[in-house]
Amino acid sequence: MLNTLRTIVQEVSAASDLRAALQIIVQRVRDSMHTDVCSVYLFDLEQSEYTLSATEGLNPSAVGVAKMTQSEGLVGQVGLREEPINIEDAATHPKFHYIKETGEERYHSFLGVPIIHHRQILGVMVVQQKERRRFDEHEEAFLVTMSAQLAGVIAHAEATGSLHVTPNNPRKTARFQGTAGATGVAIGEAVVVVPPADLGAVPDRQHDDLDAELALLGKALEAVRSEMKETADKLSDLLPVEEQALFDVYLRMLDDNALGLEIRNQVRAGSWAPGALRTVIDEHVRNFEKMEDAYLRERAADVKDLGRRVLSYLQKENKNNICYPDNTILVSEELTPVMLADVPREQLTGLVSVQGSGNSHAAILARAMGIPTVMGAVDLPFLKLSGHQLIVDGNLGLVYSTPSAELLEHYQVVVEEEQEFTEGLETISGLPCLTPDDYRIPLWVNTGLMTDTVRSLDRGAEGVGLYRTEVPFLLRERFPSELEQEKIYRHQLEAFAPRPVTMRTLDIGGDKSLSYFPIEEDNPFLGWRGIRVTLDHPEIFLVQVRAMLKASVGLDNLRIMLPMITSVFEVEEAMHLIHRAHTEVLSEGLPVVMPPVGVMIEVPAAVYQVRELAKLVDFLSIGSNDLTQYLLAVDRNNPRVADLYNSYHPAVLQALQKVVEDAHKEGKTVSICGEIAGDPVAAVLLVAMGVDMLSMSAANLLKVKWALRRITIQKAREILAEILTMDNAQVIRSSLELALCREGLGKVLGIKSRRFAD
């Protein structure tokens, strides 16, 4: 049964469109289960009805014609109950609904299973038989497994707008749910980017010059053939004759009468060369993987390797020829800073990533750049979206492909209003963040690049709550020297002087790795990261602290912050090294003032030791991103559980309140440098809790200031008191938004988009 399932999945994955995939499924399932009928009914949420979309056994003419309401018939009952229904004689069931067009009156036994994706019913798969019998548990389990596979296929079709294709409605707007990455709305053209030499990530695309595409392909094939010949010659004295013969096989496979010819034919049919290569290689890989002979099955890996080699040459040429339209929406399976850097900033309108969440570093970078972003679009068939018009709603985490005229008109109004509102915020950039009842709250910024500095100062930042010192490490191929670090830190300290600059010591591990200092672990977020790495490598820590101290000479605006603290012992050990570095710099004759030292509260262990930690340091800063992740046991980079990552969870809010109260009992200040600080909605709660400073990306600073300047601290505390009595994160967020709307703060909440989202 497992082999049968694998074969069906492979065939479905290779189908050209949804209709072809459905037909493959109903044919193969009927044959595998030896039943008389297999059918798929798709559910249209807007129409609240099921439509017979594919069948093997019922009248073919009923496809697209036979329909049932959401609660009608046995199919409707399967969907409503969201579980299988297995009946010996369907016609005797009180919910049985006969549809004349199908010709199903001769079938008695019925087994229907729901097709569910992300808790949403997409359809129902049914098998029927003339014989009166109940399908056994193995048959039911097989059909349930098939429906789970089909769910992903249908979700992909929904995203590309090919689900409900009719002559009168050739394309339908597709809405796709992800996670809000960076606020704002973008309307533009999708440009799909992929990692190098990854065949599985090559998007579908049409070429516009046949001769040029064939020439490019020919050049790549010849380059790989030459490479293979050189490799064979180098190894000729080291390999036995039979192994050398494999190189001849590979060369023949790349010949113009073999794979080369098939790829050219795909190009002549309209596909660009990388897409044609992927199609041909995938087909041959599937054929090899189906073979019973183990040796021949292993050859699938060889075919993949050949494909990757050819693709790498194609990508070298294509990279220089990528055309970015003025309204580029960059789409990728996993966005990286390098991908963002390749696009001219003035042409980059929006971002969509299949992987990652709203708190992954790609999203944090997007917020810093002020680019509307949706993360964690896990079922988006991104390879098919190149050139499509998209709407990216970074407020609600939604992506629309092939939007209708009505939807476009609505979002164009939203974009215009957002631009008008944002431009109006410039008038308050030089004003203090002061509530109407004169409560003062300093707004600081999170930085990592010098490009952040100008933007931060223009928006009236009063200091730096988090300078990510790992950025210079990530941009190099080796550890930066003490002198290099000193120059980098000096630029940052001078730019903000006399404002304070909080420099976090090297924070690598988790989802931040150095190519020259790799950390490979099964659970990196629970492993060797942050202060654990630098305490184990004092030579790295001491060099960095000395560079910070030297950079601060004459400015005296440095603050040092320690990441991932879990115990008093770690703080004591780190303080010993910091004092040692300070003594060493003094011995060089430099008049360095000992800077304030603080710790980050970002793991549950630290929450319960705040008073003990506060006695050892000068300040505390809450890293709400990691704290939320660890409190809720949710990987903040995993889009599958992104909906569980919620900063408004009661446990998170209670932890934040406890940290502030305990720190103040020891007379120490508390700031928040996590992404929650840049959310105008959350900022109201944080100020009410007594947080002393908020540090955020520069892109959010003016929105937060605008909101806090319009609500009294007394009202904020009243709202907080009510919120802390609630036990549901979604209810908390909704109640908070409603309360702020009543206070006239609706402009910063992104509410207007929801007309089409709900």
UniProtKB/TrEMBL annotation:
<keyword id="KW-0762">Sugar transport</keyword>
<dbReference type="GO" id="GO:0005737">
    <property type="term" value="C:cytoplasm"/>
</dbReference>
<dbReference type="InterPro" id="IPR003018">
    <property type="entry name" value="GAF"/>
</dbReference>
<dbReference type="GO" id="GO:0008965">
    <property type="term" value="F:phosphoenolpyruvate-protein phosphotransferase activity"/>
</dbReference>
<keyword id="KW-0418">Kinase</keyword>
<dbReference type="InterPro" id="IPR029016">
    <property type="entry name" value="GAF-like_dom_sf"/>
</dbReference>
<keyword id="KW-0598">Phosphotransferase system</keyword>
<dbReference type="GO" id="GO:0009401">
    <property type="term" value="P:phosphoenolpyruvate-dependent sugar phosphotransferase system"/>
</dbReference>
<dbReference type="InterPro" id="IPR000121">
    <property type="entry name" value="PEP_util_C"/>
</dbReference>
<dbReference type="InterPro" id="IPR008279">
    <property type="entry name" value="PEP-util_enz_mobile_dom"/>
</dbReference>
<dbReference type="Pfam" id="PF01590">
    <property type="entry name" value="GAF"/>
</dbReference>
<keyword id="KW-0460">Magnesium</keyword>
<dbReference type="InterPro" id="IPR040442">
    <property type="entry name" value="Pyrv_kinase-like_dom_sf"/>
</dbReference>
<dbReference type="InterPro" id="IPR015813">
    <property type="entry name" value="Pyrv/PenolPyrv_kinase-like_dom"/>
</dbReference>
<keyword id="KW-0670">Pyruvate</keyword>
<dbReference type="GO" id="GO:0046872">
    <property type="term" value="F:metal ion binding"/>
</dbReference>
<dbReference type="Pfam" id="PF05524">
    <property type="entry name" value="PEP-utilisers_N"/>
</dbReference>
<keyword id="KW-0963">Cytoplasm</keyword>
<dbReference type="InterPro" id="IPR036618">
    <property type="entry name" value="PtsI_HPr-bd_sf"/>
</dbReference>
<dbReference type="InterPro" id="IPR023151">
    <property type="entry name" value="PEP_util_CS"/>
</dbReference>
<comment type="similarity">
    <text>Belongs to the PEP-utilizing enzyme family.</text>
</comment>
<dbReference type="Pfam" id="PF00391">
    <property type="entry name" value="PEP-utilizers"/>
</dbReference>
<dbReference type="InterPro" id="IPR006318">
    <property type="entry name" value="PTS_EI-like"/>
</dbReference>
<keyword id="KW-0813">Transport</keyword>
<dbReference type="InterPro" id="IPR050499">
    <property type="entry name" value="PEP-utilizing_PTS_enzyme"/>
</dbReference>
<feature type="domain" description="GAF">
    <location>
        <begin position="17"/>
        <end position="164"/>
    </location>
</feature>
<dbReference type="Pfam" id="PF02896">
    <property type="entry name" value="PEP-utilizers_C"/>
</dbReference>
<keyword id="KW-0808">Transferase</keyword>
<dbReference type="InterPro" id="IPR036637">
    <property type="entry name" value="Phosphohistidine_dom_sf"/>
</dbReference>
<keyword id="KW-0479">Metal-binding</keyword>
<dbReference type="InterPro" id="IPR008731">
    <property type="entry name" value="PTS_EIN"/>
</dbReference>
<protein>
    <recommendedName>
        <fullName>phosphoenolpyruvate--protein phosphotransferase</fullName>
        <ecNumber>2.7.3.9</ecNumber>
    </recommendedName>
</protein>
<dbReference type="GO" id="GO:0016301">
    <property type="term" value="F:kinase activity"/>
</dbReference>
